[in-house]
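Researcher: Structure for this, please.
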Amino acid sequence: MSKGKRYEEPKLNIKKVIAVIVAILVIIMFVFIIKDILQKEQDTNTGNISSLSYFASFYDNKWGVIDSNGNTVIEPSYQEMLIVPNNKNDIFLCTYDVNYDTGEYKTKVLNSKNEMIFTQYDKVEAIANQDKNQNLWYEENVLKVQKNGKYGIIDFDEKEILPIEYDSISVISGIKNAILVQKNGKYGVVDEKGKQLTDIAYTEIRPLGKDNKSGFIVKDEQGKYTIIDYSKNQVLTNQYEGIEAVSGNDLYVVVESGKQKLIKKDGTEVLKDGFDKITAILKTSEAGVIYQKADKFGVMDLTGKVIIDSTYDFLQEAKPGIFIASKDSKFGIIDSNGQEKLPFQYQSINYQEAADFYIAEDDSFQANIIDNNFTVKQTGILIEVDSDRGYIKLKQGEDYKYYNFKFEERAQTEILTNNTLFVSKKDDKYGFVDKDGNVIVDYLYDDVTSQNVYGFAGIKKDGKWGSIDNKGNVIIEPTYNLDNYLLVDFIGRWHLGQDINMNYYNQLD
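Model: Predicted structure, token format:
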């Protein structure tokens, strides 16, 4: 049934409709462009608001949490340090009501809104680990939970990774993503996704290499050792009274009758005499081993022939045929013929494998950057080597300079592409310029630091330090003596703590 005339819809003016739609689309596009520009401006070394980082904070003898813009997230009010297991997640672990006599304590978990989360457990804790230099880290994606005396693992979304049925949960020391679990008196290893890397069947587990994919040395109930690889396969056909964490080229160092020997995977003996200890297997197949005899180090091939006499206090293979060595408390470099490639005059030498160069440092902390032909390419106080972005930062005289891995000098703007401010020097004073060389912070300071990843930089005057933001605004006037700090690094009014391994920031005023 047709409608009466008064209800007939007017005809559309198609041209006007199209014009309106286009105008709306342009406005929407303009809004998104402006939003993107503002977001990019905000993201450039300011601690990106949409992707904040979080850090433990310390003020007036109390602990809290700040974000990477320097804002207080959790007021410093706790007696114990708040743990931030992954600084990209707003999950903060609090320990309280600690009884230092009995070792008893309580835990709770807070988010950035200061809300309690993960409340169904008796305890929630980070899974802590450290390397040989005592640098502390946490498993970044999982937490240990306890209930009714048993332990399990959850992820940051509270998804159960391991059921709460284990007697203990700890770590394989120095190995990331290798979590040691105990059940019914036996140990096994799982990763952060709950995958079993070994059966829960051993009385002792140690790492074979530097990561969880290198395998594990395990001990059974009879006190015998073998090796389990990343796929839970038994690597060695026999079980031994001891196995050393030394392997390579399908060769392993085992102990039988109280003595080390080198074997193949099938148990065939390769070397058993001429050494007290084998400390490394050379990288090139069939090349040989580094051995120790009478507290000195040398090299022998797989027939037992000595290639380099055991006359060195330290010996480490840098790359095939090249060794970093030490004698008389000084370091040098030799080749497989024992010929000196670098004289023994350095306090330390490190090989940068990814870039194929050496860093040789003397007693005064001056570093020679040396190429693979053993030619000194640059000299200065080493500030930083960034393998990801491919640069070296050196202090040469009073200037900070950047070089790529071809040892070519590069401007700060070429290296620090996300920075808004760049260090500049004039008349022996430091300031900051923008990428076009315009002065943003005048030349007033005796020393400064480059912007950190959160957009802040340090400024020094008359022996005292302060900070500026990414626009050059002064956050703290130079006020603080930081002579006892290893690293000058500010987030707003907060400064990195003296123990940099703990990764916390304290407020100095």
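Researcher: Any notable elements?
Model: The two ends are 82 Å apart (CA to CA). The helical segments are 14-43, 412-415.
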